[in-house]
Amino acid sequence: MSASLLKVRGLSKSFGGLRAVDSLDLDIAVGERVALIGPNGAGKSTTFNMLNGQLKPDAGHIQLNQQIINGQASEQMWALGVGRTFQIALTFQSFTVLQNVQIALLSHQKKYFNFLSSNIKNTIDPSIYLLGLVGLSDQANRPCSELAYGDVKRLELALAISNRPRLLLMDEPTAGMAPSERKAMMQLTSRLVEEQKMGLLFTEHSMDVVFHYADRIVVMDQGRCIANGTPNDVKNNSLVQSIYLGASAQHITL
Ligand SMILES: Nc1ncnc2c1ncn2[C@@H]1O[C@H](COP(=O)(O)OP(=O)(O)OP(=O)(O)O)[C@@H](O)[C@H]1O
Ligand SMILES: [Mg+2]
Fold first, then answer.
1. Whose CA is nearest to atom 31 of ligand 1?
2. Closest ligand to the CA of 41
């Protein structure tokens, strides 16, 4: 059994009278890939937003590597080892791929962005290393605006792991991708999770991706966890079938 990385107990968040997340327990081990799935409004994004510090929980604990981290702001969560993929809007389109990674590295160190300063020169080697990890070395000097969609997603992943997170959060990592790109993206993510000894929590509407790349699947409905198990367990769970997977469960190949 791998070492415990994330331990969440009793996590809750209400909006007015609506219990968006209701006493959620969640565990992730080092090297484990966990998918969080469920119908619209189940509470997946609210859970993510509490884990990355965008929302304060009403109750419960979030423990990362034995340290209680809930209630911290996004920046502190990031510094404590919770990484997440950034939206494309956060990349600087006219800057090169390499420069975008350099800017991310400098921002972790809270250093002033100045491309003439020695600070930025010190980020060249680590940035090239990160681009190598995600297979973007040959695109380093291209402006981001010229990247193909799949390469933008790779860059987002490089930015997400630039702070060496322990827990990586990905909200719909393959949304908008062609099937071949999805496969490449999830294979890359899986390799990085293993190599960098991270834990991965991802949401995804593509059940093909979920059932092929998750080691474990947590199913939410109306703020509560209704199932938690291996892809095979979840596929055969009658409650999950009736609430979420429906007839499509028969078409999931494992
Ligand atoms: N800021 C907010 N204010 C009020 N209600 C909210 C807010 N954010 C989410 N909710 C509500 O909380 C519930 C859970 O929403 P959440 O976005 O976490 O669901 P989700 O599982 O991510 O759904 P989806 O699959 O559609 O992305 C929904 O009923 C939603 O309308
Ligand atoms: Mg959502």
1. 41
2. 1
Minimal-distance CA residue to ligand 1 atom 16:
43
Tell whether 92 and 209 lie within a shared domain.
Answer: no
> Are residue 175 and residue 52 in the same domain, yes or no?
yes
Range of the domain at 108: 86-164
**Pair 181, 61 in one domain:** yes
To the nearest 10°, the Cα dihedral for 114, 115, 117, 122? 120
Neighbours of ion ligand 2 (CB under 5 A): 44-45
Assess whether 170 and 76 both reside in one domain: yes
23, HSE (Cβ side, Cα atoms, 13 Å): 1
CA distance 93 to 155: 12
Q: Which of 164, 181, 203 is the last residue of a domain?
A: 164
Question: Which is the closest atom of ligand 1 to the Cα of 39?
Answer: 25
pLDDT digits (tens, 9 = 90+) for 133-167: 999 999 999 999 999 888 998 999 999 999 899 99
pTM: 0.91
Residue with tokens 């719909």: 172
